[in-house]
């Protein structure tokens, strides 16, 4: 049997991905106590490059936020975002009039399609304790036939996401099918909506000093395992340390042993779309001409404008988790 490990690579910012995925970023921020207005104490902002604070050597970042961490309004077209918030909270607002607060294990699946603006802010809701945040954002491509579908967003609340306890491992099934356990349905126009594409997004946690076997896929897909936290894992032919990605042969099971610390992984898998990709910032199309058209349309229409009072819109501090959809439907969840 051949080696199931095709290659390994260091995890940069963002993480290296394979078709059908475009981008994956991991945010781990040890945010301080809030100042009562959902931001940090202004004294802590001295020395930060406000508006462009991505310093990986600091325990937390403001990103593009000026007073509250996060990403004020910005456009997308031609792909989807999958945002997994394991710790902390994210406040969503968009040009469709939709909004939400999600976190502590929730996932938002958003299809940008023909074009949408949204903001993603990270409110510091707790003033008496620190506000740690752990978040993945994954960009999943849309095929040419789906580039101009209507924008859509869907919440996968953590109470509803399948979590499998398998011996010494815990597998959170955000997308796909894990040994017969099917994830919640993705957004309707997603590449992941067709089971034949075998798209999988799994957050896997394996106890220290134990062994885990990753099942093989059923078809020709790309498969990448991101080892983002732990001490080390051992395969037959050697050791891999944290902050490395592992490109795997999907036709083989893979067994590894975990070292002295619990190991944490993200797995991304899917059938490649195999179409040309043209990217410019928040736009992903098939040709450079389509990118230019997207930029021109955004200049002219702002993809529907911005119905919120602030570019870095956040929701009431004391509000729990919720989703307000473009059709006016409101879903309230306990905080």
Automatic annotation (TrEMBL):
Stated name of the protein: Pirin family protein
PANTHER family linked to this entry: PIRIN, PIRIN-RELATED
CDD domains per record: cupin_pirin_N (cd02909)
Family assignment from sequence similarity: Belongs to the pirin family.
Pfam families: Pirin, Pirin_C
TM ranges: none
Residues annotated as domain Pirin N-terminal: 59-140
Gene3D superfamilies, A to Z: Jelly Rolls
InterPro entries linked: Pirin, Pirin_C_dom, Pirin_N_dom, RmlC-like_jellyroll, RmlC_Cupin_sf
Domain (Pirin C-terminal): residue spans on this chain: 202-304
